[in-house]
Amino acid sequence: QVQLVESGGGLVQAGGSLKLSCAHPGSGFSINAMGWYRQAPGKQRELVASVTRGGSTNYADSVKGRFTISRDNAKNIVYLQMNSLNPEDTAVYYCNRIGRPWYEFAYWGQGTQVTVSS
Question: What does the alpha-carbon distance between residue 37 and residue 13 come to, in Å, rounded to a whole number?
């Protein structure tokens, strides 16, 4: 079974920073672009950042300039550096491949909770 393991979340004050990590099993995940998604209570899961195998990145407007996605292909890890956090960033954060609607992916990790207090 595919294993995606997210970590690094926590409680932080507005303006603070966190760095999330996602360990993936390699293989197809190493070849494909990867993304960080988040889901806030009562809201749809959304893609906030993505990175290709070659390192090209893309960001949702809501996080552009504050979040930085990167990946270490040798270690099969994808990172999300989050700066200038605000309460609207509070959500469970997940990683997965991209390229199709999130609900079409069969496997998800447990996610990591990020809570930003005002």
Answer: 21
pLDDT tens track for 15-56: 999 999 999 987 777 778 999 999 999 999 999 999 999 999
Unique residue bearing structure tokens 């959500």: 91
CA–CA separation, 72 and 96 (whole Å): 15
Q: What is the pLDDT of residues 66-108, one digit of tens each?
A: 999 999 999 999 999 999 999 999 999 999 999 999 999 989 9
User: What is the distance between the alpha carbons of residues 67 and 61, in angstroms, rounded to a whole number?
Assistant: 10
Instruction: Look at residue 37 in the predicted model and tell me its pLDDT.
Output: 98
46 CA to centre of own chain: 10
Helix (H, G, I), strand (E, B) or coil at 103: helix
Taking residue 71's Cβ as centre, other Cβ atoms within 10 Å add up to: 23
Q: E strands, the chain, where?
A: 5-7, 10-13, 18-23, 34-39, 46-51, 57-59, 67-72, 77-82, 91-97, 112-117
Alpha-carbon gap, residue 68 to 28, rounded angstroms: 23
